[in-house]
Design goal:
The complex is a heterodimer of chains A (about 110) and B (about 900). Chain A is mainly α and about 110 residues long. Chain A has a single domain (about 10-100), classed as Winged helix-like DNA-binding domain superfamily/Winged helix DNA-binding domain (Arc Repressor Mutant, subunit A), CATH 1.10.10.10. Chain A has helices spanning about 10-20, 25-35, 45-55, 80-100; strands at about 60-65, 75-80. In chain A, helix 2 (about 25-35) packs across helix 3 (about 45-55). In chain B, helix 19 (about 510-545) crosses helix 28 (about 855-885). The chains are: A mainly alpha (about 110), B alpha+beta (about 900). The interface between A and B is medium-sized, with 22 and 22 residues.
Chain lengths: ~110, ~900
């Protein structure tokens, strides 16, 4: 197991970066989270999380090209690194293992 | 569309401010993408929720970005970079300092000396200004001074006066909230006794009931409005209570005053602080005084406006200003006493003295203690500022001069890409380090020198001034403004060097900078010369006053204070005392008088005139009561007539006058005045003799018009004229023994007249001492400045000197060459300093009735001293340069 610990929100953002591929920048991630999970989150929270993930080496970033939208400001595009992918996978497996330990079929209670 | 979105943000003030602020705080690398995201969201929001709500959301979103996760990213990276530079600056500083130890220590020493002097004098000045500042009502408390005019001429200014003023003002003016009457009750000192424990007390007053409500002297025991209400009650200081009662609770106990009345102690106050003009150890209730003099006399005194040695303080209502109240007083004085005063040719005016200005700006008759002198305090403050300025100038001078050494470094730095701001920062930092070091040493020096300084100037100064936040802030700002300003100039000069010229090697400092530095050194020398001249003049004047003949004998005169505890048997007791003393061959004369030389005669009376003259022609004279032996004991010289003698039954029927009094009475021929009769205090006296003018007081004062009256019931001072080559201790012991047998229950106090007399010069001597101290400090600082400048100049001319030597110049010629310009500076400084010194010292001397003449020598001598010191300072550097081997200076290019 990796010593590095990933928070719940960090995991969510990291997953979104993985999903969005070349289009993963701050605002897109906010919208993606809202669309897919139905959760409203603040832009600044997403940014801070992205930078933290970058510090940990799970994503890397580069500036995208300028467009006419957003006042001509460039986007900072994040891409998931191999370490990030491995981390996501490890966490998923860990959760699955834990999930299996919960006794299923609790129908009697109904 | 995109233009409008940005415009929406920019056109809205609050939004704009928030965005700008964020832009300032946000790490630049992250800013663009964040702003882009924000704008994008804003655009979407405009479409979905409308412009107004969108903008609100936008603002909220921006505000949310002010979080540690963003801001810290910023600070860390920048700080790290600066820390690197900072440590680099320190390293360089350490290296250059190590390379130039003498320069660094001169610099720090100059600053430290200057700042220490400034701080010490600053403390003194603040102390002097803090007098009576602690009264919570200080802006509303006034002492009522009475100015008396004789024939429209201001003749007397009384700080003490009638009993009746306080009650009268309170009754007639609603603006007067309360008043305090205070008097010594006729005695300069008194003896308090608890059974067999008795001491002489100098600071005991009768004070009226509202004393502790008007002033803010804190009571430890007792209620402020009650303690002095009843007759025969008293309030004592903490230490006085301890002296008489030890650790016992003094409340309810009694003390006997002068062997007569018993006073019950109703309150204890904290010992009086140093910084008040009104110092007392015990207060007796004013009501007691009324009881002692009896109802008839009390009624008389309370309603009369005759002088009775009473201090009156009033508290004005908050809404009343001093001016508006003072303007109402002349009409009142006229109504109450105008008529009667006019019959004596007199008039009178009340003047209000704000309580906190008394210490520095009141110097009149009957002051409670010798007050400070506002003028010399301001003078000292000015000098202190000058010294500080000199120290900073010095720093600027040395730092700029030494910049030569750093020129190459600056050149290389600039070539490598330093901008000017960075260089300024570096050199400011260096100056900051130097100055903080100096400030730290100053702080240590001030704390350790303060006790010595306090004794030196004879004032109890402590650091309690620093309890006030405002003063601290003031001191800190003076220091830091100086630090910044004196650091900025060198930093700007050094950072302005042109790298190409420096590195090519053809570097020369600007001539304008040279003129500035020379000008600054000249200013330093001007102040030094003025200071030296001042010291010389002050010392000469004090010497002159102490050594001039007074016209009387003051050597070998022992003065014993008369008894306070006395009764009807006094006359016979005194006779015993006198006889037993005269048995000793060493004691030649014993005389009694109400005053002795060394202080102004206390008794002063207006309306004295020749019998037969109109009462309006009366004038005011000082009246001194003496016995028959007084004039002879003091060796006073007779001009005409005779002195008092035991052969005549003289008691309030004859008088002697001095020459000044004779002139005021209208006589020029001393023979003609003999036999004339004058009115003094309701008595008719015949003038029997004229005495040569002598100095009753310090030579600072004019000779007063004196009238001597023979009075055998007085007991203020006994003067013992002694003639012995042995130690005086024996005489003192004998006098004490005789005194104790003649006047039991009275403590024995004595002083030597010459010492007593010379005490008057104490403040001037102190002024001279402080002045001298400053002069030395000023000269040291000026020398450091000159040293810095001359070494700089030598450094700049190293090559020139080398070439001159190779071509055959002698050591003498080169020394002269280098020293010449500095000697010129000092000579020029002399020419400017002389008129300044003359004006200042002429002004200082104008206070003295007897003064020295300001000779040319008083100015030439300081100039010569300054010149010699300057030559010594400069020659050390120039001789070194002249002796140097030219090979060393010429071989490296």
């Amino acid at each position: 197991m990796n010593k590095e610990y990933l928070g719940e929100f960090e995991e969510l953002v990291l997953t979104m970066v993985g999903i969005l591929q070349e289009d993963a920048y701050g605002n897109a991630i906010v919208n993606e989270i809202k669309e897919r999970v139905g959760r409203t989150c603040n832009l600044s929270a997403v940014h801070v999380t992205l930078y933290r993930l970058e510090d940990k080496g799970y994503v890397k970033s580069s500036m995208g090209g300028a467009t006419n939208a957003r006042g001509g400001r460039r986007k900072r595009i994040f891409t998931i690194t191999n370490a990030g992918l491995a981390m996501l996978r490890a966490m998923k497996e860990q959760q699955m293992q834990l999930w299996k330990l919960i006794p299923q079929l609790k129908i009697s209670g109904l | 569309m995109k233009i409008t979105t940005e415009e929406i943000i920019v056109n809205h003030l609050i939004t704009r401010i928030i965005v700008r602020t964020f832009a300032w705080f946000c790490p630049p690398s992250l800013y663009e993408s964040i702003e882009g995201d924000l704008l994008e969201q804003f655009e979407e929001d405009i479409k979905s929720v409308g412009e107004k709500r969108a903008r609100r959301r936008f603002v909220w979103n921006v505000l949310k970005f002010f979080r540690l996760g963003i801001l810290l990213r910023n600070k860390f990276s920048v700080q790290l970079n600066q820390l690197d530079m900072l440590s680099h600056y320190f390293k360089i500083l350490l290296r250059t300092t190590r390379k130039n130890k003498s320069y660094a220590s001169i610099n720090v020493a100059g600053l430290t000396i200057g700042m220490t002097a400034f701080a010490l004098i600053g403390l003194y000045v603040l102390h002097e200004r803090s007098y009576d500042d602690f009264h919570t009502k200080k802006d509303r408390i006034f002492r009522v001074r009475q100015d008396r005019y004789t024939h429209e001429q201001l003749t007397r200014q009384w700080t003490a006066g009638p009993w009746g003023i306080g009650p009268d003002l309170k009754a007639n003016f609603p603006e007067v909230v309360r008043y305090v009457s205070m008097t010594r009750g006729g005695l300069l000192s008194t003896v308090l006794a608890n059974g067999q424990i008795f001491f002489k007390e100098d600071k005991v007053f009768y004070a009226s009931g509202e004393f502790f409500r008007l002033f803010s002297y804190p009571l430890i025991k007792g209620v402020d409005s009650l303690v002095l209400r009843r007759p025969f009650t008293m309030v004592v200081s903490e230490s006085l209570a301890k002296r008489y009662f030890g650790e016992e609770n003094p409340i309810g106990k009694t003390l006997k005053n002068n062997g007569k009345e018993e006073y019950e102690i109703t309150g204890v106050f904290k010992d009086i602080p140093e910084n008040t003009h009104l110092k007392f150890d015990a207060l007796l209730s004013f009501e007691s005084l009324l009881k002692i003099v009896g109802p008839v006399e009390a009624e008389d005194l309370m309603s009369s406006w005759m002088w009775a040695g009473n201090y009156t303080y009033i508290e004005l209502a908050p809404s009343t200003s001093q001016q508006s109240f003072e303007s109402k007083l002349p009409a009142y004085v006229e109504k109450k006493a105008g008529e009667i005063l006019r019959t004596w040719g007199e008039s009178m005016a009340f003047v209000l003295q704000p309580v906190s200005s008394i210490h520095l700006y009141s110097n009149h008759k009957d002051e409670l203690e010798p007050n400070g002198d506002g003028r010399s305090v301001n003078f000292l403050a000015l000098i202190a500022l000058f010294i500080l300025l000199m120290a900073w100038i010095n720093y600027i001078n040395i730092a700029t001069a030494r910049s030569m050494e750093r020129a190459k470094e600056v050149g290389v730095r600039k070539v490598l890409g330093s901008d000017r701001l960075q260089l300024i920062k570096q050199f400011l930092l260096e100056s900051l380090v130097f100055k903080l070091t100096a400030i730290a040493i100053t702080a240590i020096l001030v704390v350790s020198l303060l006790p010595h300084f306090s004794t030196f100037i004879d004032r109890k100064i402590d650091l309690s001034i620093f309890n006030s936040f405002r003063t601290c802030l003031m001191i800190a700002s003076v220091f830091f403004v100086g630090v910044i300003i004196s650091g900025l100039y060198p930093a700007f000069v050094i950072s302005g060097f042109k790298p190409a010229r420096i590195l090519k090697g053809s570097f020369q400092n600007s001539t304008s900078g040279n003129y500035l530095r020379k000008g600054l050194v000249m200013v330093q020398f001007i102040s030094s010369i003025v200071l030296i001249a001042g010291t010389l003049v002050v010392t000469q004047q004090v010497q002159f006053m102490r050594n001039s003949p007074l016209g009387i004998d003051t050597e070998q005169m022992l003065v014993v204070q008369g008894p306070h505890v006395k009764d009807a048997t006094y006359a016979s007791r005194f006779s015993t005392f006198r006889q037993s003393l005269l048995q000793y061959p060493e004691i030649k004369k014993v005389a009694v008088s109400t005053d002795v030389p060394g202080k102004a005669v206390r008794g002063s009376n207006g309306g004295i005139r020749l019998v037969g003259q109109d009462s309006k022609l009366g004038n005011s004279y000082r009246v001194i009561q003496v016995d028959e032996d007084f004039t002879e004991a003091y060796g006073m010289q007779l001009v005409s007539g005779r002195i008092f003698s035991h052969d005549f039954k003289e008691h309030w029927n004859t008088a002697l006058v001095n020459e000044s009094a004779m002139k005021l009475l209208g006589f020029t021929d001393p023979e003609k005045i003999i036999g004339q009769k004058i009115y003094v205090w309701d008595a008719t006296l015949q003038i029997v003799g004229v005495i040569k003018d002598y100095h009753q007081e310090s030579l600072k004062k004019k000779v007063d018009q004196l009238i001597f009256v023979c009075d055998k019931e007085i007991a203020d001072y006994y003067t013992l004229k002694v003639q012995t080559s042995k130690s005086l201790q024996e005489v003192i012991d004998r006098a004490e023994a005789a005194y104790k047998t003649a006047f039991p229950g009275n403590p024995f106090h004595y002083f030597f007249l010459d010492e007593y007399f010379n005490q008057q010069y104490k403040s001037d001597q102190q002024f001279g001492k402080v002045f001298g101290l400053f002069t030395v400090i000023g000269i040291i600082i000026a020398c450091l400045g000159l040293f810095g400048l001359s070494s700089y100049s030598v450094l700049q001319r190293t090559k020139e000197i080398g070439i001159r030597k190779v071509l055959g110049a002698s050591v003498k010629q080169i020394t002269l060459l280098v020293s010449k310009e500095f000697i010129l500076i000092v000579l020029l400084a002399n020419i400017i300093a002389w008129p300044i010194a003359y004006l200042l010292m002429d002004n200082w001397l104008s206070e003295f009735a007897n003064k020295i003449n300001l000779g040319i020598l008083s100015f030439i001598a300081p100039g010569a001293i300054a010149l010699v010191i300057a030559i010594l300072t400069v020659s050390s550097e120039s001789i070194k340069a002249a002796m140097a081997d030219p090979v060393n200076s010429l071989k490296n290019e």
